[in-house]
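Running this now, will post back.
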Amino acid sequence: MDKVRAGVIGYGNMGTSHCKWIHDGIIPGMELSAVCDIDSAKIDAAKKNFGDDVRYFADYKAMIDSGSVDAVIIAVPHYFHPEMAIYALEKGVHAMVEKPAGVYTKQVKEMNAVAAKHPDLVFAMMFNQRTNPLYIKIKEILDSGRIGEIRKVTWIITSWWRTQKYYDSSSWRATWAGEGGGVLMNQAPHQLDLLQWLTGMPTMIRAYLKYGSHRKIDVEDDVTAYFEYPNGANGTLVTCTHDAAGTDRLEIQGENGKIIVEDSSKVTVKILRKSETELSETLDFRQMLALVKGQSGEKLYDEESFAIPENWDKQHIDVLINFADAILNGACLIAPGKEGVKAVEIADAMYLSSWLGKEITLPIDDDLFYDELQKKVEEEKSRENI
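Update: finished.
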């Protein structure tokens, strides 16, 4: 195979970008061979952009069965991600899934099980922020042990501002039945994946969610969550979609230092000259104050800073390039598809904690979450019928 014939399922916000990048030759080794959408108006728009060189379908199964594609990029509402990936993989077609991997872990684990039966196929996630040089550098620092064992993680990410008209733009948006949730399912999967990629999976979560607190929606638009790690470290995640001014600040504190990230573009790394444990065991109160105030003649820590502007489009493009390279040359995936379940499990644990009013240990009870989600779907339907 010299070229990967790619089919894009879903010609919406992200699907249009994927199609354009591939069609314009920006993805080496990949060509756009098909576009699928159930909305005929979107297909008409795609035809105007790509002409007769591309085939068009209203049914994703028909596209996959047509023999026109070697790989699919799935960019549709979240519930359909596993269903479509499973069909593609079982038909011998490589699959790239947009975030999140799905809505509930039971569904995503089924997708992973099918993928495991087809190791010859490439199964990937569109976790574009893993290609951000800034987060790659942070991961290198963490993996090197420079800041020591992690003690605390704090991420305030309220820069996901969305207006009411955004939610009103599609009937499936911000619904339990159509989208499976709000900010945790739509915007924050980026941070949920980065959190586990950088610092590992938590073992316990206690979350407080507000549903439609500042928007006319049924799902969550405000989240405050506390979590704990296997080593006893703890963390917090605060996110919402109603903060027009927005904040994006990540702090990762270790025994030997701290990493501070602002606006996903500026990083400050502080490395203690002695571990906090050693300082705690050797300094009295006066010595501690003198060191903190710079009056001891010694430095408490060495500091370095760097900035890497965020390039959103390039991040997506790099993941697609990696996907094509994996198919053609066996390159290692930046975001293997099987890892998508991790961010979904963190989100599902937060929902369960909020719904049940208690701490949730991970791994979660897949069946319990699914049952509780169905209750939300039914409640939503009942209100619509009133």
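The radius of gyration is 23 Å. More later if anyone needs it.
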